[in-house]
Amino acid sequence: MAISTLARRKASTILSSRFLYSSSKYSFSLTRGFASGSDENDVVVIGGGPGGYVAAIKAAQLGLKTTCIEKRGTLGGTCLNVGCIPSKALLHSSHMFHEAQHSFANHGVKFSSVEVDLPAMMGQKDKAVSNLTRGIEGLFKKNKVNYVKGYGKFLSPSEVSVDTLEGGNSVVKGKNIIIATGSDVKGLPGITIDEKRIVSSTGALALTEIPKKLVVIGAGYIGLEMGSVWGRLGSEVTVVEFAADIVPTMDGEVRKQFQRALEKQKMKFMLKTKVVSVDTTGDGVKLTLEPASGGDQTTLEADVVLVSAGRVPFTSGLGLDKIGVETDKAGRILVNERFASNVPGVYAIGDVIPGPMLAHKAEEDGVACVEFIAGKEGHVDYDMVPGVVYTHPEVAYVGKTEEQVKDLGVDYRVGKFPFLANSRAKAIDDAEGIVKVIAEKESDKILGVHIMSPNAGELIHEAVLALQYGASSEDIARTCHAHPTMSEALKEAAMATYDKPIHM
């Protein structure tokens, strides 16, 4: 008999952690009273990215008069225009090319030669972006969201001045204003991004030729994904990382396997290494490096350098100081559990507040924030937000890492299952990876799941749902999974957690 009842009933606080700022001094009414007028909105959203446009649509669906202000001129924010979507398009296209070069013959598909048509590849990426941005505009029209193209800044807690892209200016009034302006690339001292030889992720998505040598500064999600794209297309990729490990949020055991997988793809890593300076006076780029702890300097040459050292909240020019909105040392807006700032009527969501800087987290923030404004209840548990690195194999995870569980002093069990023992993975000749399940020892409640495999980003959601409902590893193990599927590896890992797997 499964012990999910015990797992669900146990008053465990292992997975409960909140990133939102909450203080009794911020106790106030959610909405403000203004003289009503035909031009006054119930909700004004500044920013049309994943958090902003979702918040605007949800507000309109709840019957609130809504306006969304976006400076880019196209909706979708960084994610859709120069982030998540175009990078995944290039990741897929470059993976197809790499498979054609290295794997097709194993499946009996042979041809004399294969080459990259980079303009066509970029064209496919641009087409996907264009179609999706137009789709969001269509959703705005469908839900009667007023869309203003321009740069907004606060005149007061209830008024936003917008310098429109057409060159004019208008004032948008709102009872409730949501800041959803996202994040920007984090710069590094002494390094000027020109988006030609020294590029951000934006420039890396628009290179006009394949660099012979690409140096990536930063071994996080973005750096590894973009390094994978150009590495598959023929670049010699070296990743320089100040820290001792790649992707610090990843489970340590999975991280090591992941790094080995990337190294087999000829990606080189220089960990515990600091970039001292960058010289662009010659034809290429020359980097001066030294150990993070200090020591002898070395040089590294590249055709293109990708600066991928993280992101910072984007609030420049909003006029937050003018209306007294409080921020922390990192520039993030401080909000309470209802996403409200210290200024009544002003809210913030997504990358401008504490928490994971992920598009899907911003979407959840947007929905919950608007629900609070509408007098309903909203909730986002940041421990249930999955993370995905879209390389090949992908790595996806949710909940706690083994290191975090150890730090909490919790007795736990670990179950693992390799894709080398998974029928579907072997059948398609793509079996590199592992599933790792971590569960509390006494209750068997799942605390974390970590997957490295093809399409791990799709497989992780069964685990997200399991954590959301307080499932035990036995719950997953006793759930029938279709055969043959990659998902069976999660079932077997769950079996290994509470008992023993069948196929290993």
Automatic annotation (TrEMBL):
Keywords: Disulfide bond, FAD, Flavoprotein, NAD, Oxidoreductase, Redox-active center
Occurrences of domain Pyridine nucleotide-disulphide oxidoreductase dimerisation (ranges): 385-494
Reactions it catalyzes: N(6)-[(R)-dihydrolipoyl]-L-lysyl-[protein] + NAD(+) = N(6)-[(R)-lipoyl]-L-lysyl-[protein] + NADH + H(+)
Name this polypeptide is given: Dihydrolipoyl dehydrogenase
Extra remark: The active site is a redox-active disulfide bond.
The protein's Enzyme Commission number: 1.8.1.4
Pfam families per the UniProt record, alphabetical: Pyr_redox_2, Pyr_redox_dim
Enzyme class: oxidoreductase
Superkingdom as given in the UniProt entry: Eukaryota
Coiled coil: none
Cofactor: FAD
